[in-house]
Write a sequence for this structure.
């Protein structure tokens, strides 16, 4: 669906506390346009729990349950059970969590809900840091990235959350980015139609956390796809299908751009270029991305 054909109704209302250029509100607007008002949102501690505004006001025109960092998927499971007891199974129950509440603190509750086959949609908006609490590193933070707790650059590569989720054999898992809203809309619509646990991870480039100009949010997401550092795919019925430019990359119809083109636009990676180029770490990052795509090809073969 083209953007112009999406619903004009806005469930993310004006007056919210998002930063300029915030990818979370960009993504959430598209998600709500796909889900509609028959939605209950479960939000753990994250930027969005502040963006929605301070009690007794709210900027989200749907019911919201704010819950402890580690308990989002468990709380969503309770909401699903309560609705089922009332005979109300036409309501979308959605977890909207950051990478800290998914990769790290909330992974146990998410895994348990997947194992129980809970009928809900788990969405991780991944800005690759604990942004709300001061830009600390998370399990999703890339190798060599500056954060307030990795001032010399993170020493570890991020978790492969996609592989962890796929290992649960849930009906549907996908990746997206706020830079391609039509792709995100379509994937949420598909997830909405599937019974059982679903997972969508949205790359959410964060201007203050990643150290880039607030008008570059969309560009940063597109470059992540074009360099191959963020592949767009869907995993359904044990089969993976790539989407958009990731499909063209996978089929060898276009070349991936060098990952350096993405890195050099972010202040959090300035340590790789100043006072001199760090060829060793730049090489390791490019090799990491190359190896990821080689694994995708091996799985196909």
């Amino acid at each position: 669906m083209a953007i112009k054909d999406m619903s004009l109704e806005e469930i993310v209302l004006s007056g919210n506390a998002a930063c300029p250029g915030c990818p979370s509100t960009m993504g959430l607007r598209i998600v709500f346009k796909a889900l509609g008002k028959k939605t209950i949102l479960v939000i753990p501690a994250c930027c969005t729990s502040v963006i929605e505004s301070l009690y007794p006001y709210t900027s989200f025109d749907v019911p919201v349950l704010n819950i402890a960092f580690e308990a989002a998927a468990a709380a969503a499971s309770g909401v699903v059970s309560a609705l089922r007891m009332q005979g109300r199974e036409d309501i979308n129950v959605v977890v909207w969590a950051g990478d800290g509440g998914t990769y790290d603190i909330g992974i146990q509750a998410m895994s348990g809900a997947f194992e129980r086959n809970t009928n809900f949609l788990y969405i991780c908006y991944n800005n690759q840091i604990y942004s709300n609490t001061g830009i600390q590193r998370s399990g999703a933070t890339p190798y060599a990235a500056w954060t307030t707790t990795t001032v010399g650059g993170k020493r570890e590569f991020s978790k492969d959350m996609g592989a962890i989720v796929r290992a649960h054999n849930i009906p549907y898992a996908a990746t997206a980015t706020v830079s391609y809203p039509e792709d995100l809309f379509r994937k949420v619509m598909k997830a909405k139609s599937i019974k059982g646990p679903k997972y969508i991870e949205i790359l959410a480039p964060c201007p203050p956390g990643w150290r880039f100009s607030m008008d570059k949010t969309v560009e940063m997401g597109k470059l992540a796809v074009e360099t191959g550092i963020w592949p767009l795919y869907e995993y359904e019925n044990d089969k993976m299908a790539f989407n958009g430019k990731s499909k063209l990359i996978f089929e060898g119809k276009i070349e991936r751009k060098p990952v350096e083109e993405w890195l050099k636009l972010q202040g959090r990676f300035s340590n790789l270029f100043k006072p001199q180029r760090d060829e060793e770490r730049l090489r390791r990052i490019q090799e990491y991305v190359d190896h990821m795509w080689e694994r995708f090809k091996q799985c196909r073969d």
User: Anything to note?
Assistant: The first strand starts at residue 39 and ends at 43. The mean pLDDT is 95. The first helix runs from residue 23 to 35.
